[in-house]
Amino acid sequence: MAKPLKERDGAPKLDPRGRKVKILATVGPASRSPEMLARLFRAGVDAFRVNMSHGEHETHAETIKAIRAMEKEFHRPIAILADLQGPKLRVGKFKNGEAVIRHSGHFTLDRNPEPGDHTRVELPHPELFGLLEKGQRLLINDGKIRLKVIRADENEILCSAEVGGVISDRKGVNVPDAEVPIPALTEKDRRDLAFAVQQGVDWIGLSFVQRPEDLAEARKLMGGYGALCAKIEKPMAVRRLDEIIELSDGIMVARGDLGVELEPQEVPPLQKQIVNKTRTAGKPVIVATQMLESMIESPAPTRAEVSDVANAVYDGADAVMLSAETAAGEWPEEAVTIMHRIARQVESDEAYLPRVRFLDTPPDRTTADALAHACMTVADTVAISAITVFTGSGSTARRVARERPSVPMMVLTPSMKTARRLALLWGAHAVATKDIGSFEEMIAKGKRMALRHRFAAAGNKLIALAGVPFGTPGSTNLMHVVTIAGDELDKHEN
């Protein structure tokens, strides 16, 4: 008698997630132990974010090593995203460590290094002087203090305090109304990026993106290794969004910083716009920041937070991200579990598929795009268990995912780098396996892997999508529907 599939030697230790949207979790003091990382993976995490703003390289290297060890334990490729800090604009210091800016009063930012008081403080960023104009805003301490420029020259920026309050040493400054002439990469970012590439991370998150040119230096330093995710957190980036999407491998909607520089009511429609444009381009898009914020301290989220996560899933985002909830929160495993349950509940809603396909993504005039679109149509028409995609670079998988098919997509690739990168792609269950050399081998391997990874059973139909000649990048030109016979299940389990 054949052994149960879950007991077979070498079988994955987890069933497929049962959802298509991915979960990206930030690693921090609350989650960096190997034991907690494994618990988060079991709870539903598909990819981990290493925040380079905090911690030392030695600590991050231990985290990355632990995640790679988990891959072997769970037989699953796991994506690692190294999130660069980016430049930080800050005020100088105060005589008493802090001061109070009076509402509607005047306050000056200048180049004088002397400690500040309730009337003035140093702004140690010479590039801002002469840049700002009357009526533009300066937001301090995540927007808690709001200043409007009255007059600006090469030495002073005189402001009126629309919202005053307590200001203290080294608080952050946001400049939402101007393109700040500083690069997206600081010296620290360059060191962090070199470390991340040396460690073999899969994605680089680039902060403070304002213009397409900001991506060029990061690309050069990456040296062709890894994928580049542009974080949209500045209003200036929104103005050139199409160009930034074109030059990146993926997009993160960094709503926390966007919410500081924009009015709160502007963020939700902008989130949908960014998701839609990135999806249309066929690239992964991550919705991030404050998704289950209350779970930093509470074992249960608010209903508004649940709706927020659900809306991102309904919009068709490729991934949803947890930040402090898993990095420093008291309930990291519970936060992942809740997010997993929300996603599964949304995707089981009969209204989900029409909603997620509301966006029109017409295929490009290529054979590969036409076949990817056909996969979706066949899966809607015939009782298909899964789409099996054979790819080296992952481009075919991205084409299929762009169509948001109704069935799971199992991606077979000879490249572990590709398999890891696809851990952030909607609906993709990537498997690193030996390359194929013939049509017969493709069909046999597709059936075998579908059984092994629990995407199919005897009598189920699969779609196989590949390119001939095999092993040739960009040659997707073949789609085939196959049925798994009953004796194939016995052969597989024995």
Automatic annotation (TrEMBL):
InterPro entries reported for this sequence: Pyr_Knase (IPR001697), Pyrv/PenolPyrv_kinase-like_dom (IPR015813), Pyrv_kinase-like_dom_sf (IPR040442), Pyrv_Knase-like_insert_dom_sf (IPR011037), Pyrv_Knase_brl (IPR015793), Pyrv_Knase_C (IPR015795), Pyrv_Knase_C_sf (IPR036918), Pyrv_Knase_insert_dom_sf (IPR015806)
GO MF term set: ATP binding; kinase activity; magnesium ion binding; potassium ion binding; pyruvate kinase activity
Pathway(s) this gene product operates in, as recorded in its UniProt entry: Carbohydrate degradation; glycolysis; pyruvate from D-glyceraldehyde 3-phosphate: step 5/5
Family: Belongs to the pyruvate kinase family.
Residue intervals of the Pyruvate kinase C-terminal domain: 369-482
Reactions accelerated catalytically: pyruvate + ATP = phosphoenolpyruvate + ADP + H(+)
Domain Pyruvate kinase barrel, residue spans: 19-336
Keyword list, A-Z: ATP-binding, Glycolysis, Kinase, Magnesium, Metal-binding, Nucleotide-binding, Pyruvate, Transferase
Protein name: Pyruvate kinase
Cofactor or coenzyme needed: K(+); Mg(2+)
EC number(s) stated in the UniProt entry for this protein: 2.7.1.40
